[in-house]
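#struct-help
A.M.: can someone run this one for me? Single chain, 152 residues.
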Amino acid sequence: AGISWFDLSKGLPSGVIIKSLQITESNNTMKAATHGNGVYEIHLPDIALSAEKEPSLPTGFKLYQNFPNPFNPTTQITYSISKFNKPQFVKLTIYDLIGQTIATLVSEKQPPGNYKVTFEASSEMSRLTSGIYLYTLRVGNFSQTKKMILLK
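D.P.: on it. Structure tokens below:
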């Protein structure tokens, strides 16, 4: 979208073979090193030399390792929802090692994209001890679990 091609061959001999191109953004010039015909330089006054990339959507579901890990008292959990799906119900839950729910961080319909959620163990500190906890992402039929370590 918005990308156009410009003919920049003015001044080059017919059939010339270009071996190398160098674009210098600071002065909007392009140099072309040819095979046997020297180096040519052209000023690029009206050509945008850079463009912002649109952020790409993930191609699959993914639950990433929390960071920092080990943590005390806060950690971030990142996950991705596939661009090939419509908005789906997402549930991100923290469990202890015997399967008891500690906290539900996300429980809502979300569109495809990349997400980051903060887990504040300090709000649960009265009952949480140092140790290993699990966090599970469920999106439709997809489910993935990772471990995290709380150090008090």
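A.M.: thanks! The radius of gyration is 26 Å.
D.P.: also worth noting: The beta strands are 18-24, 29-34, 39-43, 62-63, 74-81, 88-95, 101-110, 113-120, 131-139, 142-150.
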